[in-house]
Every structure is written in structure tokens, then in C-alpha cells.
Amino acid sequence: MNGTVLKNYLKHTNSFIRFLLVGIVNTAVGLSIMLFLMNVLELSYWISTFIGNGTGAVTSFLLNRTFTFKSDIEWRRGVARFFCVILICYSAAYSIGQAIAESLEGTVHLSIQQNLAVLIGTIFYTVLNYLGQKYFVFKKSNLRPIQEGRN
């Protein structure tokens, strides 16, 4: 498959598929950083997940704006909305992940429990983030531009 065929195919795919493709890159980078910080540098769960997610956020905004949702949203407005959604999704998803993993306390080793919390949080984060990006950050406007000469 040459680059043009792939590019044309991706241009016509569902926004969720494109979001997932962007997400694969962001997740691989973010998750690698989270697990490295938590397991190698022994930073806390919250610092590790925050830095890991923050690392992918800028790339995510750029790719989702241009590739996934093909949005022409004003930069300042888009970035502000994007980071609001990211922070809300981050807080909700990783709190849920931690709560579910903590319910396993005593049944699995703490390091497995924390890694499981990261993985569960990542799943919730992906779904919540897609919904927030599609319906809030990069939402297509239903308003038509005012035509000159018409009242």
C-alpha cells in the first residue's frame, strides 16, 4: 500500500478510528513514560500518570485538530478547551482506575496493583477523552456564516 492510498483511505475513515490511531501513538508514549517513572525512577502514581499524560497532550491536540477532527477551531479557544477536557478526563479516569485496583488490595502485590490502576485508568481515559474532544473541543459548529448583503 503506497502512501497516497493510505492517506486517501484514512481521510474517509470514521473519526473514532482516526482518534484511536492517534491514541495508539499517544498511549504508547504516555504509558511508557508512566511505567518508566513509576517502576524505574520510583515516582508516585499521580506524578507518573500526570507527566505521562502531559507528554502526549500537545501531540494529541495537534494531531486531533488536523487529522482526526479536521477542525478549524481558533488555537486559543481550542487549547483552553482541550486542556480542560484532558484534566477532567485524567482526574476521573485515573481515580476510577485507582479505586478499582485498590479494591484488589491484599490479593495482588502493590506494584501489580498500581500497574493495573494505570491500565484501567488508560481505558477509561481513552473513552472519556474521545467524547470530550469530539463533542466539546472540536465540535463542528451548526451556525452558518452570515452572508454579506443579507439581513
UniProtKB/TrEMBL annotation:
Domain of life where this protein originates: Bacteria
Keyword annotations from UniProtKB, A to Z: Membrane, Transmembrane, Transmembrane helix
Domain GtrA/DPMS transmembrane: start-end pairs: 18-138
Pfam families (alphabetical): GtrA_DPMS_TM
Topological relation to the membrane, as annotated: Multi-pass membrane protein
Matches recorded under PANTHER family: PROPHAGE BACTOPRENOL-LINKED GLUCOSE TRANSLOCASE HOMOLOG (PTHR38459)
The name this protein goes by in its record: GtrA family protein
Native source species: Peribacillus frigoritolerans
